[in-house]
Amino acid sequence: MEIIKFRPLLKQVLWGGNKIIPFKQLDQHLEQVGESWEISGLKGNESIVADGLYKGMQLNDLVSRLKDKLMGKDNYERFGNEFPLLIKFIDAHAQLSIQVHPNDDQARAKGLDRGKTEMWYVMKSDEGARLMSGFRKALTPEEYQEKVENDTITDALAEYEVKEGDVFYLPAGRIHSIGTGCFLAEIQQTSNTTYRIYDFKRRDKDGNYRELHTKEAADCIDFSVESDYRIQYAPRRNEGVQLVACPYFTTSVYDLTEPMVLDYSELDSFVILMGLSGMGTITDDEGNESPFQAGETILLPATATSVKVAGEIKFLEVYV
């Protein structure tokens, strides 16, 4: 088994910016790249292995071939041949719509495969960049409808000026929006189901208002209010700091200035490493070695019992 890297799927969108191409050190000249899909098993948008023994294979074909050796026994029984996570970098040059995602039961009731729970890790964003997550005051469904119709829904949302290292957990049902200037890593269930609630009366490239899903959103919004929607954690050097643990993924951050061995001998899952800053090397227990730097995303198969990370590098670790 090898350390696996994929070709990024770059998404050019009206709200996209110019941070992703230089961050990933790509020799490409594209404008308005809003997303880099780093690892995706979403049908029609499957990642392709970049090099090595499995070069050119689509991710779900790789899962079908390697099964529990790649996924882990329990994960393969649970998810079958579809990779369960969608991993992205997102650069918002303009405000994204206010939106919400259904949970698994709500999605399946509408004939969809699954809902979408996700999280954000904020990277080096523009000064003053802001995002919205959750309600700052209680609303009834009727009040929500009125605020959408009279263009005041943003008044009811919790808004945050963000800095590098901020983390937000977005369980299905939590209303949210990424603001202008935000640059972040996103980890989510493999799903592209989004209910758009409000789009600031903007028009698309053809001059049309984008479709809204106010009724569908109302059926799955969590109207509860929390005092702070950020994840509180204490950053530490040279050890893992867990950020989010939920039924769909567990994510930790590492900020290394010295070599460290990550022990996966008791873990029955693939592991994803997302480079946030710096550079180094990864060496697994079979002696496979790979460079690893900011902007790169690596997939370690479930058969890897340990990896050594050397160099000065900060990264996210994700597994199911």
UniProtKB/TrEMBL annotation:
ATP-binding as UniProt keyword: no
GO MF entry, a single one: zinc ion binding
InterPro entries for the chain: Carb_Metab_Reg_Kinase/Isom, Man6P_isomerase_Firm_short, MPI_cupin_dom, PMI_typeI_cat, RmlC-like_jellyroll, RmlC_Cupin_sf
Binding locations of Zn(2+): 101, 118, 176
The keyword Isomerase is annotated on this UniProt entry: yes
Any single GO BP term: carbohydrate metabolic process
One Pfam family it belongs to: MPI_cupin_dom
Alphabetical keyword list: Isomerase, Metal-binding, Zinc
Gene3D superfamilies given in the database record: Jelly Rolls
Active site, renumbered: 196
Record protein name field: Phosphohexomutase
